[in-house]
């Protein structure tokens, strides 16, 4: 089907101004302008709809992740405290990391290992941590969970998933594990001032002997 508006647009681009003024009539230019305006409105409207839809799905995904995490926590809480600690250790977590993630001291963890009774709140925290590990490994296919928790979100910035979880932001841990959001975006959600906070005038480079070294940035 002929497209007179497109033909007029091509003619306007390829012929000189004098000829164009004779070849393309004012009504044709008006129609072209109206078509472009309408197209811009349509695309803008659809873009807004997609943005709203994307935000809705983001919220829904966060809600379903939170629901699954809490459901798994109920199941994990049926285990004894020594068993939960043993499973966390088997995943590769150091005792200091378990203490940090559970908001307790290292001596408290050591006492639990020897059979001391943990409060209901602390038992809940251990179960929640194990459930979070289950979610990260099972739903987001992270193989070495403890090592992944220790990995910085962004190179040269000392913020890890342990940091996020210990700050009561498991939602950001799950978001990071899903890979649906750029790590810098996740870090900004956690700390909007992270770029300035962790800015450095130095950089690591490979020296002539093949070993890493530090130098001032240009």
Structural class: mainly alpha
**Total number of beta strands:** 2
Stretches where pLDDT is under 50 for at least 5 consecutive residues are: 8-21
Q: Please state the overall shape, judged from the principal axes of the Cα atoms.
A: flat
What does the radius of gyration come to? 28 Å
The ordered H/E elements are HHHHHHHHHHHHEE
Give the distance, in angstroms, between the N- and C-terminal Cα atoms.
59 Å
Q: Total number of helical segments?
A: 12
Give the spatial strand order of the biggest sheet: 1-2
What amount of the residues lies in strands?
under 5%
- Average of the residue pLDDT scores: 83
Structure description:
- The longest helix has 51 residues, at 26-76.
- A hairpin with a 5-residue loop joins strand 1 (202-206) and strand 2.
- The chain has helices at residues 4-14, 17-23, 26-76, 81-91, 95-102, 106-113, 120-138, 145-150, 161-166, 170-178, 183-190, 194-197, and strands at 202-206, 212-216.
- The chain has twelve helices and two strands; from the N terminus they run ααααααααααααββ.
- Strands 1-2 form a two-stranded antiparallel sheet.
- By secondary structure, it is mostly helical.
- Helix 5 (95-102) packs across helix 6 (106-113).
How are the elements arranged and paired?
Layout: H1 4-14, H2 17-23, H3 26-76, H4 81-91, H5 95-102, H6 106-113, H7 120-138, H8 145-150, H9 161-166, H10 170-178, H11 183-190, H12 194-197, E1 202-206, E2 212-216
Antiparallel strand pairs: 1-2
Helix pairs in contact: 1-3, 3-7, 4-7, 5-6
